[in-house]
Amino acid sequence: MSTTDTDTAAEKAAGSGASADERELGAAGSQLSTAPVEEINVPSLGPLGWARWFWRQLTSMRVALLLLFLLSLGAIPGSLIPQTSIDALKVQNFKDKHPTLTPVYEKLQLFHVYSSVWFSAIYLLLFISLIGCIVPRTLQFIGQLRGRPPAAPRRLTRLPVYTTWRSDAEPERVLQAAQQMMKRRRFRTEAAGDAVAAEKGYLREVGNLLFHIALIVLLVSFAAGQLWKTEGTSLVTEGGGFSNSLTQYDDIKTGQLFNSDDLAPFSFQLDHFAATYERNGPQMRTPRTFRADVTYWDGTDGPARKTSIKVNEPLEISGYKVYLLQHGYSPVVTIRDGKGNVVHQGPVVGLPIDGANLTESMVIKVPDYQDETGNKDQIAFQGQFLPTWVRSRGMFSQFPALDNPALVLTAYHGSLGIDGGTPQSVYQLDKSRMKQFMEPDGKTKYARALAPGDTMKLPNGGGTLTFDGVKSWASFQVSHKPGDQGALIGAVGALVGLAASLFLQRRRVWVRAVAGDDGTTVVEMAGLGRSEYAKLPEELADLAVRLQADAPPASEAEPEPEPDPEPAADPEAAPESASDTADPADPAEGARA
Asked: Which helix (H) or strand (E) holds 297?
């Protein structure tokens, strides 16, 4: 906290050589701020003294600002370096590309900054510092609110802003009018003796306290959001649904104190996905309609409700938010083995490889399969799905809408490598133990381009694949952070408190009215405020003008008229005799005559 001129006045008043007026001014100018007064003890400190000194340093505002600055610096590597809690795959790729930096980063815990020891230490110290700073300031401020404005100094002329005038109004009437005027201007007043003391600007200290309390609310909210958070994604095809359980997430990130029993029971079903795109101009392919129509259930026995989820318009349910992330297509296929049995039927989700036109890489695995002779085998299909295929322009879609959908596939048979229990990605195919089907000539690799309704027949009676149609899929992010609402409240409170502390100023005004020697009333007004409040002279002048309506300045006495000058002597007139001009009362003049 910064030192003010009033604090300096108070320190002067406490000095042994200060006069009575200086001590009085120091009392009037004290406690314009709730900043704690630092005590410096020159003698050596014992263990208790050192503990008290360390606590005072930790709870000082400059240390709190330093810790806040260190916290912001510590967040920089968390934004620039991949974090394990956010994307473990990016972290692994970073380690593979930077083998020299990886050991250093691991020792500094830069791959998990926000849960590191050093970041947590700064976080906790800042929290303790703010608590230790706010509690004594709050108690002191409450004491000031319960107190009364200090009495007027003996000499108001010593204050930085001062004015005076004489009035014919009675002193009691002047003081009463001054007190009423101050109350109308929302000053807190106190009449004592021949003066009225007024004080204003307490909301400045309220703003200071609100700002620091809001910082604590922000810290607690961020901590709660990290400790109990749940954030995961799930891909849902039209007609499919999602239930809030761990098995329904494609990937999920949770906080350290997360418990699976804390998951709220809710579910939703994707009824239809609507997407339209700009077809001309510089914004071609830009989505114009991007909406997921869903039916959701809140709780295990909640009624079914319908709604739409759009970008930046999530579904809020049971304290969770369901965001719409991506959209793509799922070709619906029916696969029959060599015996004519259906071994797979339904939509297949591909991996997007072209974000603008929604070209997808397709992999279909069929582990339970029989050829035409009844021998068990495993087959797989690999290729691409193109929403709008133009054969002459290659194997990429030319537009994201379903203008000319095509499914281009080739087929393999052999071992998928899944019998050993090793997990595999559904979007990747291990072809190390598989052979590609060949055309009847034995030289050309087998591949087909299918339109909806087409069927590809595998060579040598290997079975069939029918392209039945296309469904849309949507990717959703399900997020639950219990500290979001508290963080919003803290942020708003910090802004309000900061505005109050910057634009409001604490100041005091005194009005004294005493009877003068000439029978008029001497009215004095003086003000005292923080050094940065430059508008105090204007405010005091405005108050003085308003008070003069009830205590008008006394009219000055008219000066006595000056005597007319004697007429100039006529040079032609005969001079008078000495006896005529002599003053008979003046003996000297009589003697000279």
From this structure: strand 287-298
